[in-house]
Amino acid sequence: MKKRIFSVIVAMGMIISALSIESDLIPAKTAYAEKEVSSGITIDDEYLIPDGMGYFTYYVVVATNNTGSDIAISADFLAKDSGGTVLRRVNDYSDAVKNGQQFILYGQFSQESIRKAASFEYDYNVLPTDKCAYSQVSVNAKRNGHIVELSATNYSKYDIQGVGVRTIFLKNGKPIAFDTVNIADLGTTFRGGSTNYQVVGMNVSDYDDVVVTYTSVSNIPLPADT
Q1: CB contact at 8 A, 164 and 150
Q2: Under 8 Å CB-to-CB from 190, ≥6 apart: which residues?
Q3: What share of the chain is helix, strand, coil (3-state, %, to 5)?
Q4: Residue 208 pLDDT exceeds 70
Q5: How far apart are CA 24 and CA 34, in angstroms?
Q6: Cα 221 to Cα 219: distance, rounded to the nearest angstrom
Q7: Average per-residue pLDDT for the chain
Q8: How far is the CA of 70 from the CAs of 53, 73, 115, 130, 197, in angstroms?
Q9: Where is pLDDT greater, at 198 or 203?
Q10: Cα–Cα distance between 198 and 98 in angstroms, integer?
Q11: Is residue 94 helix, strand or coil?
């Protein structure tokens, strides 16, 4: 399911599967931990996206949870030199991804640390969870000038741990920038019944569309599909 607001795509399920760019990435290696969900993560796209300011490069992975259950997922992203030596390892995670949901994980590498990088890889571990709050929140996005204004509402009566938003900026169908933000009332607390706001794209100007995905996790176990 997808929702378009002005020029903004908000990912509510499976989207951007048609987006692709040429890449020199080595196919990612996937490692599984014991007792975890061992299949059902579909990798839709992988991108190397410089930040445009010369500080960072983002290795962005767009994936879909087809495991049949809500999951928590953690990924290590590695930059290696031509001899296979690991130059830098960084981690990203989501504590709750709904079954059937498309989501984004990314590795943020400083440009200095990957000057000699010849390849990038990632490993991920997946576990089932009963704390996915995806169905309890809604997210809307609206472009205002060069920024994208985000609003999120927690429709449940319980506090949740904010809404983690990841955004890919596109120009002529190709990713040119990446941004991420957490929407909450205070820190990581997003109170039941509350609506809050954030913006992304402060340092991005020349784009014609964006893709926004989000995840949210509850402090307590939740029934499925509520």
Answers
A1: no
A2: 137, 152, 154, 159, 160, 161, 162, 163, 183, 184, 196, 216
A3: 5, 55, 40
A4: yes
A5: 31
A6: 7
A7: 84
A8: 36, 10, 38, 7, 26
A9: 198
A10: 23
A11: strand
Length of the chain: 226
* Three-state secondary structure call for residue 112: helix
Tokens 């490069």 correspond to 57
CA separation for the pair 208, 176 (Å, rounded): 10
* Region 23-43 average pLDDT: 51
Structure tokens at 185: 């009332």
| Res 2 pLDDT > 90 | no
pTM over 0.90: no
Asked whether the CA dihedral 175, 154, 150, 108 is positive or negative, the reply is negative
Alpha-carbon distance of 20 to 128, in angstroms, equals 29
